[in-house]
Amino acid sequence: MEEVVPPQFAPRRVKRRYIVLLAVLAFAAIAFAFDRSQRMPLIYVIPESYVGPVVALFDQPDGLEPVHTKDGLEVRIPANGIVKIRGNPTLGHSPAFPKSTVVFELEESDGSRTVLQEAINPWQDYDQNDNPHWKVGIRDAQGNLRVIAVSDKKEGFVFDDFPAEDRKRPMIFWHESCQDRVFRPDWELYTSGEKTVEELHVPPCGEFHVGTVDRVRDWPAWMFLRGKGKQVTDGILNPVYTSIQQLVDEADARVTRRKAEGIVD
Questions:
Q1: pLDDT per residue over 2-36, tens digit each?
Q2: Is the Cα dihedral 5, 8, 12, 15 positive or negative?
Q3: Tens of pLDDT along 84-106?
Q4: Cβ neighbours of 3 (radius 10 Å)
């Protein structure tokens, strides 16, 4: 039976509903603002002695919790360059980095830090049909991009046209997603297009390399993640890892070999 509301109570009920609605909207606005205030840049803290590839794997049960600081969420890069992170935080900005959601800081032995710039490939930020000259660039943590014209030479390293002083500075190279590396034995389901990374539960991840142009251009193939750099010229085109452990084992072996062969920047 339909409830009959006496006329004298109807305005009161409408008013109550209006107040409840306003309270819900106010709570949602506060929650949204709080969520936005919690979004911070992810800051990779890289030891001064580290050179080589870095892979950050998210949603890892055995991963570390990023450290909250006033500038962002800090994670330290271990000796083998493979960092596992618990969860997958939604990133934002901070007063120190208003235009970057990912920041790279080189930490020296005395604890001081330098924010690293990023070397930008032609195919990262530019149309490859921008002929006859592609362009490369150097981007800082404030979002400023310095564009550098590429010369006509056919051979050489893509970043050879950087000014001499920039070629000697530590930088970040090839920063991108690495979900196409799959980390599963059934990787062919992804490469064939049968299943997506979501269906295979491939962890979110990012990869990049740390070094200087002058040194990176002469690195041997094993200093790169598979499928990168000079491994292409060696005919190794498959970027897939069958497991995270395979990635870790390769990284551990790289540390040993790097020390043995004295590869430093």
A1: 555 555 545 555 455 555 445 444 444 433 333 44
A2: positive
A3: 999 999 999 999 999 999 999 99
A4: 4
Distance, in Å, from the CA atom of 55 to the CA atom of 114, rounded to the nearest integer, reads 20
CA gap 228, 190 in Å, rounded: 19
Q: What is the pLDDT of residue 33?
A: 38
The model's pTM: 0.81
Dihedral, 251, 256, 261, 262 alpha carbons, nearest 10: 90
Residue 113 class from Cβ within 10 Å (0-12 exposed, 13-18 middle, 19+ buried)?
middle
Looking at the predicted structure, is the pLDDT value of residue 220 above 70?
A: yes
Peptide bond into 47 cis (omega under 30): no
